[in-house]
């Protein structure tokens, strides 16, 4: 079995058609609703209601969530309706409310006879949907989160769990454009849908792969001042941007606003056509993102000290934790301890918590099983959250720990950290070009990782601020050497010496310097 065959099998691509679809995905415009699991009757009902509202000048509100997916989804649909001359305004639900997403309080901002369209939220908001009915507000729900046994009452529910919220919004917007006699020219919002899809960590396979593969092309040529300014601030060449750069540089800056500040500023940045405004908003996003990094590190350091490694569930809590950062810290705890993690921010009367999990433990099911102990809940099997009264925290902790106690040692075993063994003499340009066909990389389709054993270390030296990283030269059989970079592993310099043999887990990348192209290894792990 070749390296490529192994990689395809690991991604569940075992038939000729699946492989062909993976390497040559169709344009997202050609993907049918049935393939997405979206009810075509619901799309038709939504389009009819929206089109009617546009014709009579009825107010339309896009009700979005405050994370990068929700912000992108709001921008996609707002922009599409704005181009159709709709009387449309965005509304982003604040993080500091007790109920996330569509809420009775949020709906009180709108007048009767308005049309409210949710994006990336609303699929479990029964109380709010019922209040909309009583207030004479027509409601269209578009969402991708796990529903309950049935949908809330609404004029239309456009839902699938296959896409991110921005993906659902994009397909609705695309069908709106198709129904419009104007057949809108210009931007379609695919660049924005790409950001939301990557940010929300949905598997980059199937329709999501199509969205991102074609969306990255749009992103690379995007005329949006906000994206240009954001890329420049992040020291990214927008014309060559990758899914990895979206995930680790653009998306965190958008997310930071919802976590610590006003997510409407992130929305304004995506939608503005004014260069100076884009630059000033980018400065704000950068400052908030730096604050997010500093506070997250402090919280994680505290949480790691509190975590009990022997428990099947990591459960940490503090009145000093910021509710906007608990999800980030929970995710890091899962990476370190490889078990489900719950991080709780304690307020005066209420708590807000995030859970990050493993494939073997369904986070949203565990939270739903808490029943009346929680006030609000939502999410996915791998990432979910809840709000509850502070007095219920001990019972919540006990019940979640009992659910996780059923996990076996096998359930908690880390998956293989690499795809296959590959000696360095097999690393060449032909293989690199084959691996590049697997782009775009992301959740569900990670960059291929390989194991090389007993590699001779020729030389090394620390690089970067505070010597955080390592630059290495490794011997390749029948060749002189190949360079490698090990990010965040500068502390290993004290344990290494030239000439010793090491095992490495690595990916293969292209390095460009002074118009010279060479292959370079990006080392994830060094085993001494």
From TrEMBL:
Superkingdom of origin: Bacteria
GO terms for biological process, alphabetical: DNA recombination; DNA repair
Record GO terms (molecular function): 5'-3' exonuclease activity; nucleic acid binding
One Pfam entry name: DHHA1
Keyword DNA-binding appears in the UniProt entry: no
All residue ranges annotated as the DDH domain in the record: 60-196
Entries under SUPFAM superfamilies matching the protein: DHH phosphoesterases
Listed Gene3D superfamilies: 2.40.50.460, 3.90.1640.30
DHHA1 domain ranges (all copies): 314-404
Residue ranges of domain RecJ OB in the record: 418-524
InterPro entries from the UniProt entry: DDH_dom, DHH_sf, DHHA1_dom, RecJ, RecJ_OB, SSDNA_exonuclease_RecJ
UniProt keyword annotations, A-Z: Exonuclease, Hydrolase, Nuclease
Family, similarity comment: Belongs to the RecJ family.
Protein name (record): Single-stranded-DNA-specific exonuclease RecJ
Species in which this protein is naturally found: Candidatus Beckwithbacteria bacterium CG23_combo_of_CG06-09_8_20_14_all_47_9
Gene name of this polypeptide: recJ
């Amino acid at each position: 079995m070749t390296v490529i065959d192994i990689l395809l099998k690991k991604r569940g691509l075992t038939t000729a058609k699946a492989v062909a679809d993976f390497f040559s995905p169709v344009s997202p415009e050609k993907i049918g609703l049935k393939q997405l699991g979206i009810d075509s009757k619901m799309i038709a009902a939504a389009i009819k209601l929206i089109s009617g509202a546009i014709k009579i000048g009825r107010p339309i509100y896009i009700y979005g969530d405050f994370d990068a997916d929700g912000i992108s989804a709001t921008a996609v649909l707002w922009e599409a309706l704005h181009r159709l001359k709709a009387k449309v305004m965005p509304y982003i639900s604040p993080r500091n409310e007790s109920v996330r997403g569509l809420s009775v309080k949020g709906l009180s901002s709108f007048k009767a006879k308005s049309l409210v369209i949710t994006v990336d939220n609303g699929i479990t908001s029964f109380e709010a949907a019922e209040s909309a009915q009583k207030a004479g507000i027509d409601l269209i729900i578009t969402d991708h989160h796990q529903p309950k046994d049935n949908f809330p009452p609404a004029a239309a529910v456009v839902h699938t769990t296959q896409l991110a919220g921005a993906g659902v919004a994009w397909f609705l917007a695309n069908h709106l454009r198709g129904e419009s006699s104007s057949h809108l020219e210009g931007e379609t919002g695919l660049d924005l849908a790409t950001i939301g899809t990557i940010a929300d960590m949905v598997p980059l396979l199937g329709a999501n792969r199509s969205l991102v593969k074609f969306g990255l092309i749009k992103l690379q040529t995007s005329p949006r001042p906000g994206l240009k300014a954001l890329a420049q601030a992040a020291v990214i060449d927008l014309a060559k941007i990758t899914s990895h750069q979206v995930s680790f540089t653009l998306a965190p800056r958008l997310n930071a606003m919802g976590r610590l500040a006003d997510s409407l500023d992130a929305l304004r940045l995506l939608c503005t056509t004014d260069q100076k405004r884009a630059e000033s908003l980018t400065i704000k996003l950068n400052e908030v993102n730096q604050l997010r990094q500093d506070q997250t590190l402090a919280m994680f350091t505290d949480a790691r000290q509190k975590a009990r490694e022997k428990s099947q569930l990591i459960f940490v809590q503090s009145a000093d934790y910021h509710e906007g950062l608990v999800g980030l810290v929970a995710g890091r705890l899962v990476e370190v301890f490889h078990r489900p993690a719950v991080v709780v921010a304690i307020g005066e009367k209420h708590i807000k918590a995030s859970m990050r999990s493993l494939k073997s433990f369904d986070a949203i099911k565990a939270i739903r099983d808490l029943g009346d102990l929680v006030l609000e809940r939502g999410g996915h099997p791998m990432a979910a959250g809840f709000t509850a009264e502070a007095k219920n925290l001990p019972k919540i902790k006990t019940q979640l720990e009992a659910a996780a106690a059923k996990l076996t040692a096998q359930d908690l075993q880390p998956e293989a950290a690499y795809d296959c063994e590959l000696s360095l003499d097999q690393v060449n340009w032909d293989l690199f070009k084959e691996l590049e066909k697997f782009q775009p990389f992301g959740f569900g389709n990670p960059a291929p990782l390989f194991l090389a054993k007993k590699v001779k270390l020729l030389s090394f030296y620390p690089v970067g601020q505070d010597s955080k990283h390592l630059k290495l030269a490794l011997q390749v059989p029948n060749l002189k050497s190949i360079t490698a970079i090990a990010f965040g592993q500068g502390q290993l310099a004290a344990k290494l010496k030239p000439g010793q043999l090491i095992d490495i887990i690595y990916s293969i990348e292209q390095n460009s310097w002074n118009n010279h192209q060479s292959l370079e290894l990006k080392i994830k792990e060094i085993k001494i």
